[in-house]
Each structure stands twice: as C-alpha cells, then as structure tokens.
Design goal:
With 131 residues, the chain is mainly alpha-helical. It is 69% helix and 5% strand. The longest helix has 28 residues, at 10-37.
C-alpha cells in the first residue's frame, strides 16, 4: 500500500494564493479602468474638484503595477516560492493598514476585507515556510 505525503497547511496556502491572485486581478482591472477613464472621472462639489484631484491616471498606474506584483505573488505562493510568501504577508498587512480609515464609511466591507487579510497572513506565516 503506497502512502502519499501531503504537506500540512496546503489548504491554507491555496486559500492565500487564490486570494492574492484575485486581489491582483482586481488591482489590474481597477488600474486599467483608471488609466483609460482617468480624464473623465471627477466629482465637483461647490465648483471644486474633490475626488481624485485630476490625477486618476497616476493612481491607475499604481494600481496596475501593484496588481501585477500581487498577482505574481499569488501564483508564487501556489507554486511554493518563498518570495511569494514574503510579498503576500507584506501586501496583506498593508491592506489592513490602508483599510482601517474606511471603517467608518464602509464598516461591513472593511471588516470583511481586514478579516480576509488576517487569514491570508495566518496561512502564509504559519504554513508558508519551507518544509
């Protein structure tokens, strides 16, 4: 009878990798949208541009490049690369810090996002190391 060795925490690593890939794809799509539609999107209140400050294209490039990095890190986590684990933990921790100010505007969505980021950090920190 043959026995197969399954690495402990494989489900956690797959979860973290899939979450990073989805976050990367979302960042890429958001970035592409902002680059294409950047000149058309302004919110004017009392004759002043309040949102984006006419710089949405620049943020689009930030989201696009960040999304590509996160997407590659997600694939690296699924593939077992150590650098993917480090980038994934960094990105998930950064996500928590960036989302905290939004808790009063979007409390439910912010708490879910923070919770998922904590799960990604847990999966990568506990089970992401070399065997």
């Amino acid at each position: 009878m043959a026995t197969s060795s399954v690495r402990q925490g494989t489900g956690w690593l797959l979860f973290a990798g899939v979450m990073l890939v989805l976050a990367g794809l979302t960042g890429i799509l958001d970035g592409l949208w902002a680059i294409v539609n950047g000149d058309e999107q302004e919110v004017v209140i009392n004759d002043a541009v309040v949102l984006w400050d006419s710089n949405l294209k620049a943020w689009g490039w930030v989201y696009l490049i960040g999304g590509i990095i996160v997407l590659l890190a997600g694939f690296a986590v699924v593939g077992g690369a150590e650098w993917g684990r480090a980038v994934g933990i960094f990105v998930a921790a950064l996500w928590i810090v960036v989302r905290i100010p939004w808790i009063f505007t979007f409390p439910f969505a912010t708490l879910i996002g923070i919770f998922l980021a904590v799960l990604v950090i847990y999966g990568l920190a506990v089970y992401g190391g070399q065997e």
